[in-house]
Amino acid sequence: MLTGAGLSPFFWRVQPIGWLALGALGFWIRSAAFGNPTLALALTTTLDTLGFIGTSAAAVLHVRHAGQARRLHVLAAAITACIVGAFLLGLLGTAIRELFPMGASAVMPRGTFSLGFVYYLGVLCIWALAYYGFSAELEVRTERLSEAQARQKELEHLQRQVEPHLVLNTLHAIQAEIATRPAHAQELARQLADYLEYALDRNGNTLRSVQEEVAAVRDLVGIQTQRLGERFSCHFAVDGATLGKRLPHMTLPALVEHAVRQGQRAGGAPFRVQVQVWMRDSVLEIEVDNPGHLSGTFDPSRAGPVLDNLNQRLAQCYPERYSLTMDQQADRSVIRLSVHGEPSFA
């Protein structure tokens, strides 16, 4: 019944239908009980309309404040609202009954406040149970859908991570080094194998530790160094307190690969990429900088498929608790990632 923005259209379809059905049943019961259709119609239209308005308002308030109160507080407020609502509807029903004569076939005496109170207390409690039951079920389904979407983005991300040219160039380099520098060729083959194994992990590990991410970046740097030679270098400054923190898979490699491409385009030789990772209170901070100048305002969705996919996965893991920005500092462009707290799911 809930969506990220509020009550779903399904709720607004079911809510009036439910109260109309209850009104039809209530009108029939009141007609038989009081022997006066006019009285039954007055009670039904007045009390059930107020019931519809009250429960709709309660649902809207619940959506607006759902994340601001504990479940026990919400339950206590719901019980209190049901009792107060039933009490007021019971009083109003008693007052309306005093305005109309009882029919000859009436089986209910005047002044039956307690019966009206019990009737509407039951109606409101059943409505509350049904509403919260459906809401809880929908929240579970929404969370599962969010996880499924994140998994799908992860698969798309894996397909984009390993560039064929990187693999082919590395394989050619290994082939060329085998005869003259076998130890170096063996180390390069190990780095490529480790990097591919990490990048193409199909075990559903959506989140990986900073330590694993740094290890993957070191393998990537080794591969890129072989391809670019002495004109490329990479410096790491990683706070040990961050090593156990978790990030979406291939976050650091994506940032470093982007920095390497930007550094190459800058045309300077040699060029250096710097990677810094540290904690600021409960915020994990990452900076990757490279030579070059920004061509305009940074927008992750337009910075290439890798950063676009990374930005979407960050939004899944850290909804409204992360920032991915890039700015200019002298002759270097700096991409910054900040994530607050723990990821929403593993």
Automatic annotation (TrEMBL):
InterPro entries: Bact_2-comp_sensor_kinase (IPR050640), Sig_transdc_His_kin_internal (IPR010559). Residues 154-232 form the Signal transduction histidine kinase internal region domain. It comes from the Bacteria. GO terms for molecular function: phosphorelay sensor kinase activity. The chain crosses the membrane at residues 12-33, 39-62, 74-96, 116-134. The keyword Transmembrane helix applies. Its EC number is 2.7.3.-. It is an enzyme of class 2 (transferase). One of its GO terms (cellular component) is membrane. Keywords: Kinase, Membrane, Transferase, Transmembrane, Transmembrane helix. PANTHER family: SENSOR HISTIDINE KINASE YPDA (PTHR34220). This is Transmembrane sensor histidine kinase transcription regulator protein. It comes from Bordetella ansorpii. The lineage of its organism: Bacteria, Pseudomonadati, Pseudomonadota, Betaproteobacteria, Burkholderiales.
